[in-house]
Design brief:
Blueprint (H helix, E strand, L loop, with lengths): L1 E7 L5 H14 L4 E7 L24 H6 L2 E9 L2 E2 L1 H8 L2 H6 L6 E8 L6 H14 L3 E2 L7 H5 L8 E5 L10 H22 L1
Parallel strand pairs: 1-2, 1-3, 3-5, 5-6, 5-7
Antiparallel strand pairs: 3-4
Helix pairs in contact: 1-7
InterPro entries: Flavodoxin/NO_synth (IPR008254), Flavodoxin_CS (IPR001226), Flavoprotein-like_sf (IPR029039), Flavoprotein_WrbA-like (IPR010089), FMN_Rdtase-like_dom (IPR005025)
GO molecular function, one term: FMN binding
Family: Belongs to the WrbA family.
């Protein structure tokens, strides 16, 4: 069984919902299963610590999850056209894994959510790709052979699945966004399975 790590940060739940759809796509591929993980918030208090287990949602990621995974889907909400600080903080701490080549040669994809249609989704997706490239991962996008990519009026880009959550973060995933996230998860799992063969 190939474990595919779906690692995300979500403050209001939109990115978490995308992660669940990506996991659904992964789980639809024989021999693959999704491992949902999140990262804790970054505190402005230097001595603050997060509880060992989050109050709700996925468990916090551990470095062993990176070692164990056959592929990685990385998700973050958009923060001024970039990934959220919590995800960047986690990635900045992966130098030992980078030196050991833990993620080298494994497939990866990225996903995001923003409050507005033009809130920096594509630049966020591209910024999340940079550390993955440094880790030697093989990046997968969403091809236009996915019909929803050509007619979506909400989220979805060739760089990765995305969601437009609205100013109050109360907009649920559209059918196009769901289809694209599921397709991205399936594509990632299929690539991981082929690479492992």
């Amino acid at each position: 069984m190939h474990d595919i790590l779906v690692l995300y940060y979500s403050q209001h739940g939109a990115t978490r919902e995308l992660a669940r759809m990506i996991a659904r796509g992964i789980d639809s591929v024989d021999g693959c299963r999704a491992r949902l993980r999140t990262v804790p918030k970054v505190s402005t208090v230097c001595e603050a610590t997060a509880p060992a287990v989050p109050d709700s949602g996925a468990p916090y990621v551990e470095k062993q999850d990176l070692q164990d995974c056959a592929g990685l889907a990385l998700g973050s909400p958009t923060r001024f056209g970039n990934m959220a600080a919590a995800m960047k903080y986690f990635l900045d701490g992966t130098a030992p894994e980078w030196m050991q080549g833990t993620l080298a040669g494994k497939p990866a994809c990225v996903f995001t959510s923003s409050s507005t249609q033009h809130g920096g989704q594509e630049s966020t997706l591209l910024s999340m790709m940079i550390p993955l490239l440094h880790h030697g991962m093989l990046l997968l996008g969403l091809p236009f052979t996915e019909p929803a990519l050509s007619h979506t009026r909400t989220g979805g880009t060739p760089y990765g699945a995305s969601h437009v959550a609205g100013h109050d973060n109360n907009v649920t995933l559209s059918e196009d966004e769901k289809q694209l996230a599921i397709a991205q998860g399936r594509r990632l799992a299929e690539a991981a399975r082929k690479l492992a063969a």
